[in-house]
Amino acid sequence: MNSFSHYTKAINTAILQNDPRPLIRAFSLENPPVSPRLNLSRTLPSPWDQILLFHLSAANSFYSQDYISAYENQAKCLLSYLKVFPTHKRPFLPFIYLLNNQMISFAIKADQTLILQGKEPEKAQQAAWNTNKCFSACITDNISEDDSSRKWGTYHLACTLFKLYFHLHSFHLCKNIIRAIEASPLPDLSQFSIADQVQYNYYIGVLFFQQEKYVKASKHLTFVLENIHYQCKKNRMYLIPTNMVNGILPNQKLLEKYPTIKNQFFVYINALKSGNVKQFDQALQNNQNEHFKNGTYLAMERVRLHVLRRFIKKVYLISKTTRIHTDTFVAAFRFMGLVIDGMEVHCILANLIHKGFIKGYISESHNTLVLSKADPFPLAT
């Protein structure tokens, strides 16, 4: 258990030696904290007296499971530190990360308490506002080319904000962070830590995925896949549907490296390769709850267009003609085990033509698909 003098010594050492490591050790929650003292101004300069007072109050509330009080005091602790943070540089970034992460953790637990009390959960939203202040304190540091600049905390805190916005389902707020980064004279992202690069590319990729901009999403998510531990499944949850939407199947090397990809998407991959619409529909129905939960259902619906395109192309190759009556497709669907009438076939063909998966037109008077003689099945994206 830390003694009170342990905290004051850590703070004074950090101030004198410009070294945050004693602070990080002292302000961690690994050991039960001491009780706060109201009059700290005699032993600590301002605002460190308030920083310590609020932190100890937050830590004691946390250990007594009063998460609302823990959040409120930790938020005050963080905001008090932000008063002195502009005088600190890059070495103190891990300390502000620590204070901020503690505040967010308390905020989420506080919201759970508020929900149980029948009240509106609001602490995570407040935590996002406070985190934004930390982000601003980093991105606005004018020493942009200096290795000691606080700007080196920009991407870390941006990703912390993204994570909070995702938690709050406030995805639109991510745009403000992206714009701020694009407008700032930051060092190139490649100069930041690989952890910052991976996290930022992940969130940007997911945002593009949600906007159905699958080509851009694939670029960012592929970078993540190539630079994360093989056990990280969350990125692959978005990357594989993204690539399949673009008509790109996971290659054999990828499947061998990540067996979980094969287990998750094997049926879809086979269905897409063979144009087996029934197999794809059954897999999508069996896994629809998981896809809805992950936000990948709409992407898999778009992948279905590729399966339909492959199916129509197979019928075309068998028929060996660019003019195919809709009854031929009705029969082909029934042979596969799907009962679809001529009107449904008409709608499917019209949609594939409209989306750019098929080049041609439908002759209404003859109920016939008339395909282009030049590249009738372009790979739409």
From TrEMBL:
Molecular functions per Gene Ontology: double-stranded DNA binding; RNA binding
Domain PCI: 198-376
GO terms classed as biological process: poly(A)+ mRNA export from nucleus; post-transcriptional tethering of RNA polymerase II gene DNA at nuclear periphery; transcription elongation by RNA polymerase II
Pfam families xref list: PCI
Taxonomy, superkingdom: Eukaryota
PROSITE patterns according to UniProt: PCI
PANTHER family hit by this protein: PCI DOMAIN-CONTAINING PROTEIN 2, UNCHARACTERIZED PROTEASOME COMPONENT REGION PCI-CONTAINING
UniProt protein name: Protein CSN12 homolog
Gene source species: Furculomyces boomerangus
